[in-house]
Amino acid sequence: MTPNREPALVRRQVTVEIIPEGHQFVLPEGTMVEITQALGSSFTLYVEGRLVRLKGEDADAIGKGVPEHPGQNVSEDASDDEIRELVWETLKTCYDPEIPVDIVDLGLVYVCDVMPLQDGKIWISIKMTLTAPGCGMGEAIANEVKQKLGRLPRVEKIDVEVVFDPPWTREMMSEEAELMLGL
């Protein structure tokens, strides 16, 4: 076993995504895996010579609890400012499965508009990028963003657009991200 990896046994058949292609793959019950990253609400696993991403809602398949998400205890009476804060807090729970830094600190979120609608509901519009245009995980990361934001109170509409202009560079990372990655 490699340091910082936790061995785990797959307790039930579960569908995962191959990193970085994003294709689905079924792990059969009884498969031995190593947990390489457990950040946000998903797990990165090393299995059979490749990395795969396990959704948090399937955490029981490797003997873990489902991770909590921001806003799960926030009331429908939350103010617009509280929702805006929760949106950013939620985005900071989304990770590139290959990099142990959230998408906000990586500098992948270019635009985050939180707009009130007439009926008291909220519309969230996100423009984000990826560290590399050919990354197959873009759709999976965008879907994770939508899923997590959709759990917040008063949210009715969510648009997440993956863009590549301007192209991402290391200079877009926060100082904290650079320190975490030893750059």
Layout of helices and strands, plus pairs?
Elements lengths: L5 E4 L4 E5 L5 E4 L4 E8 L2 E6 L2 E6 L24 H12 L17 E8 L5 E7 L9 H12 L5 E8 L12 H6 L3
Parallel strand pairs: 8-9
Antiparallel strand pairs: 1-4, 2-3, 2-6, 4-5, 5-6, 7-8
What labels would you give this structure?
183 residues, alpha+beta, SH3 type barrels, GMP Synthetase, Chain A, domain 3, 6-stranded antiparallel β-sheet, 31% strand
Description:
- With 183 residues, this protein is of the alpha+beta class.
- The chain folds into two domains: 6-62, SH3 type barrels (Roll), CATH 2.30.30; 80-180, Fe-S cluster assembly (FSCA) (GMP Synthetase, Chain A, domain 3).
- 16% of the residues lie in helices and 31% in strands.
- It is built from three helices and nine strands; from the N terminus they run ββββββαββαβα.
- It has helices at 80-91, 138-149, 175-180, and strands spanning 6-9, 14-18, 24-27, 32-39, 42-47, 50-55, 109-116, 122-128, 155-162.
- A six-stranded antiparallel beta sheet has the order 1-4-5-6-2-3, with no helix packed on it. Strands 7-8-9 form a three-stranded mixed beta sheet, with helices on one face.
- The radius of gyration is 17 Å and the shape is globular.
